[in-house]
Amino acid sequence: MGVHNSLMRNVRGFSEEELEYYSRQIVLTEVGLDGQLKLKNSRVCIVGLGGLGSPSAIQLASMGVGHIRLVDRDVVELSNLQRQHLYSVSMVGYPKVEAAESRLRGLNPYIEIEPLPVSLNANNAEDILRGIDVVVDGLDHMAPRYAINRACIKLGIPYVFGAAITHIGNLSTIIPGETPCLECFHVNVDDRNIPSCAVVGVNPSIINIVASIQASEAIKILLGKPPNLASVLLFCNLQDLTFDKIELAKNEVCPVCGKTPRTKPTPLEKEFVEEVCGREGRRVFVITPENDVDLNLGVIDERLKQLRYEIDARAKLGRTFSNKMGVKGSILTSGVAIIEGVKGKEEAKQLLNQILH
Ligand SMILES: [Zn+2]
Fold first, then answer.
1. Residue-range domain boundaries for the chain
2. Which CATH number fits domain 273-356: 3.40.190.10, 3.60.15.10, 3.30.310.10, 3.60.20.10?
3. pLDDT confidence of 193, banded at 50, 70, 90?
4. 209: CA distance to ligand 1 center in Å?
């Protein structure tokens, strides 16, 4: 090991391996060594690790964002793998944040990954997002997006909004105090009125386009450069490959960010038992505790055994289980549970109660 190597090892706090890992982007004029250092000292939160969060997580991790907080309440399912390329068949039944953490650590061991197996809502959004430099949207419904929007406006955190369904995507970059917020242009959208990808489908290509633009916007903000989609709503349509930019104006009476709001923000539903779309007519319920908890999985294992469930996936952050009657479920350490194969909400709640008490 010569003088040259020991000098190399300390270039601006990067190891020799890191310099080699990032060499193809350090030469980019918009990044450089200074920019790479900014990325290393940055903290990004990706909320939702499905179709959109999957490619943006891969890009932001491999580009060297130093700290990535991953937020998701789901477990990996076989029907995810067509578009959620963070995961593999061997990870089916594992909490997505845990599967993602393991994949991203393998992809880039020089950064920190922080997995949070929680359901982001109006109660916990501020706690989850505090200390973050940019939030990247990987969600598939509006209620948690509104919770993010309000927390980001309050905490002054830039938020890269993105959404995709069938072959269409739309996105915008929200800078608190400068640009319109999400509720200036997508106001009071009721999740019950928007189609879900389980029903109408989603093309993996549009997801990758939207997520790549989101990652690019996040990187620009972290590098201190102006993002392209500030005060702009970009519509992408893969059917005819068109990209339309719509200029957005700040709504001065916006109840969330306006200077002279006429009304209070619409209260966000704090629905603790939600029905989500299932397969083959089976009903699926997601149950979120009012406050995030930290469950002891050893105790859960005992209860599952007593109740004659088979454990199908034994993860660090949760369990996936089933029984011979066709009931399936997952329970995460945060207390979030997904219950499938029951007749209704009440039965789902009862079943969870049996496991917890
Ligand atoms: Zn607004």
1. 42-247, 273-356
2. 3.30.310.10
3. confident
4. 26
Asked if pLDDT for residue 1 goes beyond 80, the answer is no
Tell me if the domain spanning 42-247 has CATH number 3.40.50.720: yes
Query: Rounded to whole angstroms, how far apart are CA atoms 198 and 74?
Result: 15
Q: For 32-41, 117-126, 178-187, 279-288, which range has the lowest pLDDT when averaged over its residues?
A: 279-288
User: Catalytic residue at 197?
Assistant: yes
R_g of the chain computed on alpha carbons: 21
Distance (angstroms) between ligand 1 centre and the Cα of 113 equals 31
pTM higher than 0.90 for the full model?
A: yes
3-state SS class at 337: strand
Of 45, 181, 184, 197, which one is the catalytic site residue? 197
Distance 216 CA to ligand 1 centre (A): 23
Instruction: Give me ligand 1 centre to Cα 261, in Å.
Output: 9
Could you tell me the two tokens for 189? 């959208």
Distance 161 CA to ligand 1 centre (A): 13
Strand order in the sheet with 43-47: 112-116, 67-71, 43-47, 134-137, 159-165, 168-174, 232-237, 242-247
Of 252, 308, 318, 354, give the one whose Cα is nearest residue 119.
318
